[in-house]
Design goal:
Chain lengths: 246, 255
């Protein structure tokens, strides 16, 4: 199948997803479960990765800019802006594409190959709406919080470097992360996170929903989900950055 | 009564069903039999509308499915119950929740009545109460099929479809499932269609039999007519088992 057909099929699926649920009660029963599974359960991985990257970024920035002409706050400033502009809003989303994307694609794909989706259709349920809408909405709602959490924890990672080593002083670091703060960067990061959350959840649902065959195909569907949502994230990252910062 | 006329179905140009016509009668167990890969599941999914047919008619008591609007199809679906080849229970829900699901989705009844109905259906398929809170992965294949039947009859369907209800079950459990489907069909006057390649269940409960081979209807009749069938491929299929061969000989030379 070529790219145009796939894209068309994707948008047709989305058309079935974004309609009023048959029973809103059922939507609100699924929704909190998805908030927990896709959002809260992603916190540990976000925590671990962000804290380490924040710390490592602080050390490396400091070591690579050993220059008496640069002001002492520059390390903190660079760390902060990198976290805000790129790490927490894009790299973190790429990592979540791996975790959440494969989770969504394999869950829906398994339901497809074990005929659970057919069973829903037979009952007259709009299976796309019932299964996919809560996931997309939940993930889009959770993503900004995950990104803000990642920024905060990343900054704490850098702070810990100041506390536990003599690479940088705590005072210099704290000055740096407050210096010339531009709130627009946070807004820019939020916009990106919402778009990426939509890409991850909808693209992964698409690959799961159209899985056909056996367990092997579910594996393939989840690989496709991760690879293609990552590519789309990188592409939209470029696009949004051009529009908002360019 | 479900009547199909001249159904043709292809997958990317490869024919799966060729010009199939048949009548499935109300209050009877209608069976579609044939070898693995002959197109039984495809035919059933076409009749239900899970696959779009290329041409032909599918009439549910006079209502032609391919010509229906999406809204009408949804309404029709609520009169249809289906037991899938692998039971297809929702694995994130318990046994009881599985049976309650269609009711919660579509029945306009109170929570109490829904529970009541789910319990009735589960008891009707002889499931014990201690399994109601288990998940599908925690119960045996035979029990999963029973839950599948209970879920299929929850909304009091007029049409019941069963795709190989006894594949993967031992002979005794298969017979219990077969009898259950037979009883339910007659008790509630349902139009039942069963896919099977098991001649034992055909002889046990089949009232009207349609044999398909490579997507073509090759024979049709009642179980009494099986032994007099002239069709060669049908005979090969039926008398593959030694037991049936001997039965036929017994029938032809009773002394
Ligand atoms: N979605 C599909 N796309 C393409 N070909 C399909 C599809 N579904 C079924 N087929 C083909 O249609 C033919 C009939 O398959 P079907 O599943 O109906 O067999 P069956 O009679 O139910 O067999 P079994 O007894 O093993 O379940 C097979 O050759 C199969 O490859
Ligand atoms: Mg089959």
């Amino acid at each position: 199948m070529n790219l145009f057909q796939e894209t068309g099929k994707y948008f047709l699926l989305m058309k079935r997803v974004f309609v009023q649920p048959d029973r809103s009660k059922m939507f609100f029963r699924q929704f909190p479960k998805e908030l927990d599974k896709l959002g809260l359960q992603s916190l540990p991985i976000v925590l671990i990765i962000s804290v380490f990257i924040g710390a490592i970024m602080t050390i490396q920035t400091k070591l690579n800019t050993e220059n008496p002409l640069l002001p002492t706050y520059s390390t903190g400033l660079v760390t902060r802006d990198t976290l805000l502009l790129e790490f927490s809003s894009t790299i973190m989303c790429l990592i979540l594409a791996g975790k959440v994307g494969s989770n969504i694609a394999s869950e829906i794909g398994t339901m497809r190959i074990t005929e659970q989706i057919d069973a829903l259709e037979i009952m007259g349920v709009n299976s796309a709406n019932y299964l996919i809408l809560p996931k997309i909405v939940a993930f889009v709602v959770m993503m900004p919080f995950l990104v803000i959490f990642s920024m905060a924890v990343g900054l704490i990672g850098g702070y810990l470097v100041g506390v536990f080593s003599d690479v940088i002083t705590v005072a210099d670091y704290l000055l740096g992360i407050q210096y010339a703060f531009n709130p627009f960067y946070v807004f820019y990061a939020m916009v990106k996170s919402l778009v990426f959350a939509f890409i991850i959840s909808s693209v992964s649902s698409y690959y799961g929903y159209y899985a056909y065959g056996g367990a092997l195909e579910v594996g393939k569907a989840s690989t496709n989900a991760v690879v293609n949502s990552s590519i789309l994230i990188l592409f939209f990252n470029l696009l949004i950055t051009n529009v908002m910062l360019g | 009564m479900i009547e199909v006329k001249n159904i043709i179905k292809t997958f990317d140009g490869v024919p799966a069903l060729q010009d199939i016509s048949a009548v499935f009668e109300t209050g009877k167990v209608n069976m579609i039999i044939g070898q693995s890969g002959s197109g039984k599941t495809v035919l059933m999914k076409c009749i239900i509308g899970l696959h779009q047919i290329d041409s032909g008619c599918i009439e549910y008591d006079g209502r032609n499915l391919p010509k229906m609007k999406p809204q009408e199809i949804l309404m029709l679906r609520r009169e249809v119950g289906m037991l899938f080849q692998g039971a297809a229970l929702f694995d994130s829900m318990t046994v009881l929740e599985n049976v309650m699901y269609p009711l919660e989705m579509f029945a306009h009844e109170s929570k109490e009545e829904i529970r009541e109905r789910a319990y009735f259906c589960l008891r009707r398929v002889n499931l014990e109460e201690r399994s109601y809170d288990l998940y599908p992965s925690e119960i045996s294949g035979g029990m999963q099929k029973r839950v599948g039947i209970a879920r299929a009859i929850a909304l009091r369907p007029k049409y019941l479809f069963c795709d190989e209800p006894n594949s993967g079950l031992d002979p005794l459990t298969s017979m219990i499932i077969d009898d259950l489907i037979y009883e339910i069909t007659h008790e509630f006057n349902i139009t039942t269609i069963i896919n099977s390649h098991d001649m034992n269940s055909v002889m046990e409960i089949g009232e009207k039999i349609i044999y398909i081979e490579k997507g073509v209807k090759a024979w049709e009749g009642t179980k009494d007519e099986i032994f007099d069938a002239e069709n060669e491929s049908f005979n090969n299929f039926v008398f593959a088992s030694k037991l049936f061969k001997q039965l036929k000989m017994l029938k032809q030379n009773p002394y």
